[in-house]
Amino acid sequence: MAHPDLGLALAALALASFVSILWRLSRIGGRLKDYPPGPPTLPVIGNLHQIPSEKRHQKFGQWAQEYGPIYSLMLGTQVYVVLSADYAIRDLIDKRGPIYASRPDLYIAQHVVSGGLRMLFMEANEAWKMARKLAHRVVKIETARTYVPYQDLENKAMLLDMLDDPDNFIDHLRRYTASLTTQMTFGFRTTSIQDPKFKEAFDRGREIHERELKLFRDHYLSTKQGLKEGTAKVLSTQDTHVAN
Length: 244
What we know:
Blueprint (H helix, E strand, L loop, with lengths): L3 H24 L28 H12 L2 E6 L2 E6 L2 H9 L2 H4 L6 H6 L13 H14 L1 H5 L2 H17 L4 H18 L9 H34 L8 H6 L1
Antiparallel strand pairs: 1-2
Helix pairs in contact: 8-9
């Protein structure tokens, strides 16, 4: 026969665990005192219910007028800091960029899809510093000024192509972007949409895109079916899958 004190102890432990879980859940979506100000939050969801589905920039502008040029939004477990003034962006991003340069770990986008080499999603490590240094060399103001003659030439060529053959304006845009890239990067123009090098790059890029699209579409459809059948794991995007 179980000792009554043991039963009471287990009940007290269960109650304490339940209260602890409720307390932790109540803190999700809440704004800590050291965070920038922002609109009032609700437990768990934070400010998610206040994000409009359309014309979000207008709502963000209203919040900026109410809470200042730097404010925070609590979207579930995620914290978003919104900068709504040019001087705030210069002060934080330009002057103190190394502090805020890192990115959250996006496993699929960074490690799986790009092998850890997609600069946009890199953490602020040595590889990112090297990539950033190389990027600054080609986009700094002094270097960008040297691209103007190339841009002027390709702009005129594209406009002339559109006048001569307006039905194929998409091809003219593709040739323009390809030629601008090859001219600034490799020193040669892409003068025709039929250029073998362009066709090979375009066809391979489209093939990779179609394969990637099929991969993620299959993942999406499989997850959606699993949610309908009740066999899929609980997801943060569950409502999106079910609604679509």
